[in-house]
Amino acid sequence: MTMIMNAVPSLAAAGYVLSTVLYCVYLFRQKDILQRTAFVLALSGFAFHTLSLVGDMIRLGYLPVLNLGNALTLSAWSVAVVFIVFRLRLKIKVMGIYAAPLAALTYIASLNIPEIPSETPQIFKSTWLVLHVMMALIGEAALAMACGAGVLYLIQEHAIKSKKRGFFYSRLPSLEQLDAAAYTSIVVGFTVFTLGLILGLVYSKMVWHRFASWDPKEIWSGISWLVYAALVHERIAVGWRGRRAAIMAVIAFGLLLFSFLGVNLLIGGHHGGFTPWTAG
Amino acid sequence: MLDIVLTGLNHTTAPVSLRERLAFTSDESAEAIETLKQDPSISEVMLFSTCNRVEVLMTARNGEEALNAVKLYISRTKAASIEDFEPHLYTYYGHKAVRHIFRVASGLDSMVMGEPQILGQIKEAFRITVKKKASGVVLNRLFHRTFHVAKRVRTETGIGDSAVSISYAAIELAKKIFGDLEHRKVLLVGAGEMAELAVEHLIRNKVGDIFVANRTFERGLELATRFSGQALRFEEIPSALETVDIIISSTGAPQVVIGRDMVKQAVRHRRNRSLFFIDIAVPRDIDPDINKLPNCYVYDIDDLKGVIDENMENRMKEAVKAERIIDEAVVFFGRWLEGLSVVPTIVDLREKISAMARMELDKTLSSSLKHLPEKDSLALSRMMDALINKILHDPILFLKTKSSHRDEAAGLSLARQLFNLDETE
Question: ipTM for the complex?
Answer without folding.
Answer: 0.85
